[in-house]
Amino acid sequence: MRVGRFNAHAGDPPRSETVKFADLDLATSAGVESLYERIHRAAGRVCQDPAAIAPTILECTKDAENRAIGKVNVPMLTAFYQKKTGRYPLAVTARR
Q1: Domain range summary for the chain, segments of one domain joined by +
Q2: Are 17 and 5 in contact (CB under 8 A)?
Q3: Closest by Cα among 40, 41, 46 to 16
Q4: How many CA atoms lie within 13 A of 38 on its CB side?
Q5: pTM of the full predicted structure?
Q6: How many CB atoms lie within 10 A of CB 87?
Q7: pLDDT by position in tens, the chain (length 96)
């Protein structure tokens, strides 16, 4: 699963990072919490921008986390995320 952000500046390529979680048991609270922490750290890394102000970095991190949690689409992870942040992840839908 990839954690990423939209372009920070026009012309910049989007930044992303792969978060691996095959080693985690997402049927357990420990596995879900570990995956959330990995996503959270990856979102922080892809959103770091020395030219940006702190509120912009925070919003980028929240957005990247939100989209990644939605992509994983695991109910226990979604519930953990909602409890921890009060936010609902973006629904990911596929088009044919």
Answers
A1: 2-85
A2: no
A3: 46
A4: 21
A5: 0.80
A6: 12
A7: 677 765 555 566 778 899 999 999 999 999 999 999 999 999 999 998 877 788 888 898 999 999 999 999 999 999 999 999 888 776 655 444
